Amino acid sequence: MRTAPLLLGPVAGVAAGAAAVARRVARFRPLEAPVPPADASGLDADAAAARLGELIRIPTVSSRDPDQVDAAAFARFRDRLAELYPHTHRVLEREVLDGGALLWRWRSGTDRPPLVLMAHHDVVPVTGQAWTRDPFSGAVEDGWVHGRGAVDDKGSLVAVLEAVESLAAAGHTPARDVYVSSSNDEEVLGVGAQQAVQVFRDRGIEPWAVVDEGGAVVTGVFPGVPGQIAVVGLAEKGLLDVDLVTSDPGGHASSPTPDGAPARLARAILRLDAAPSRPGSTTSCWGWSTPPAGTPPARTGRCSPTPARCDRCSPRRWRGPAGRRTRWCGRLWRSPSSRAAARATCWPRGPART
Ligand SMILES: [Zn+2]
């Protein structure tokens, strides 16, 4: 019989591979990445949460239709910021750019390129959404702040301003200029951030670093990595809005046209869904763990016991010849959150005529 040797070969190979993986998993120890605790002196978490709640209660809702924007709410928000953060507004210079974007400058007395901290203060509407609490209550319950903008992105703005406020109150002078940039129309692809960029260009300023929202603390995204992972976005993805418009000659609803407008529209949506944009080339390096500063990229996958080293994953490999690592990467890229981070978002929406 020649069958047994033919079968035993692959079986033995699989067993050897499984044993190698098991050995690796058993020996695996996450990379030690001790992070010294942040200096939280001068910060009051409860007071900061209350301030965030108050800012959430001001409904700075964005809209692409200027007539739908409550300009008074945005003005109230700006005024309240000045009252809630008096030292920031005493020490830093604040500009209100055309339309309402905010730009603070904290002078250092040096000519080093500045640090720019960004967080927009507009939010998306809540119409038609089911909330367990009033989305503009800003309620603080059991250590959580509830409401529209708590995460995206008034929370970030409050975190930045709390840090600046405590340092300004203590008489701190930064080692380089610090700008705080807060746009009022980020959610509708507005011009607030562009205006801030134009200000820098006009003044010949090239930032040393820009830190904006993005990423999250997630679980279960990278195969084989237990616990929480802080995802740091290193590149900005694109965005594609598609308006699908179709039409029919019309007629009575009792006698619809075969392959009419709704059917063609549905087909177009399915084709879009089946052809997402390719992951960007800049996403070929993913730092999913938090290695100590100076750790080479090749070690950033040390938080995973699996054969996959995420830092070796790239869209090109995923699309290339099949392999163990490629399959793990495939799982990574199939995760909705990973896909969203790596690709231009394309989401069919109205208006559509039939
Ligand atoms: Zn946001």
Automatic annotation (TrEMBL):
Keyword Metal-binding in record: yes
Compositionally biased intervals (Low complexity): 290-302
Positions of the UniProt region annotated as Disordered: 280-312
The keyword Hydrolase is annotated on this UniProt entry: yes
GO molecular function annotations of the record: carboxypeptidase activity; metal ion binding
Any matching Pfam family: Peptidase_M20
Alphabetical UniProt keywords: Carboxypeptidase, Hydrolase, Metal-binding, Protease, Zinc
GO BP terms: proteolysis
Signal sequence extent: none
Entries under InterPro entries matching the protein: Pept_M20A, Peptidase_M20
UniProt cross-references to PANTHER family, sorted A to Z: N-FATTY-ACYL-AMINO ACID SYNTHASE/HYDROLASE PM20D1, N-FATTY-ACYL-AMINO ACID SYNTHASE_HYDROLASE PM20D1
Family: Belongs to the peptidase M20A family.
Name of the molecule in the record: Carboxypeptidase PM20D1
Higher taxonomy: Bacteria, Bacillati, Actinomycetota, Actinomycetes, Geodermatophilales
